[in-house]
Design a protein that fits this description.
Structural class: mainly alpha
Oligomer: single chain
Largest sheet: none
Helix content: over 70%
Radius of gyration: 20 Å
């Protein structure tokens, strides 16, 4: 039983470990983008998040 728990613990560590090279590349690309581009991307991501939260709550939006 102990070996299974150790294996599971290692798996969880791997799954939750941030992908630092990818984050660094993303940070560098964001540094060279304009503020307007970043604000537009942020607005689109917020809209997607709002839509997914609404869909997961089962709320129907009436488009009359």
């Amino acid at each position: 039983m102990g070996k299974i728990l150790l294996w599971l613990q290692e798996r969880v560590k791997l799954w939750t470990k941030p992908a630092t090279p990818i984050l660094a590349v993303g940070l560098l690309s964001d540094l060279i983008r304009s503020r307007a581009d970043l604000l537009i991307e942020n607005a689109l991501l917020r809209q997607q998040q709002d839509h997914s939260e609404t869909a997961s709550q089962g709320i129907s939006v009436d488009r009359s």
